[in-house]
Write a structure and sequence with these properties.
The protein is of the alpha+beta class and 68 residues long. It contains 2 helices and 2 strands. The termini are far apart.
């Protein structure tokens, strides 16, 4: 279901997947697992529950901190 929703193959409203407020679908850049994340709460310490690789690079985290 997550994969179909991420690739817009189905309408997410028709699935039994309920995102909480502030969540969105995202894919791990290493294994492409589709995850429900809260972008504003991600840190360089967060890891993918499937492959255990980092979800946010230090470069991306530092760039985000500059924009705040």
């Amino acid at each position: 279901g997550y994969r179909a929703a991420y690739f817009s193959e189905v309408d997410t409203n028709s699935l039994d997947i309920e995102l909480e407020e502030g969540e969105m679908f995202a894919a791990c850049s290493s294994c492409l697992a589709v995850l429900a994340i809260r972008p504003n709460m991600l840190s360089v310490d967060d890891r993918c529950p499937h492959c255990n690789n980092k979800l946010v690079s230090k470069h991306t985290a530092s760039k985000y901190m500059e924009e705040e």
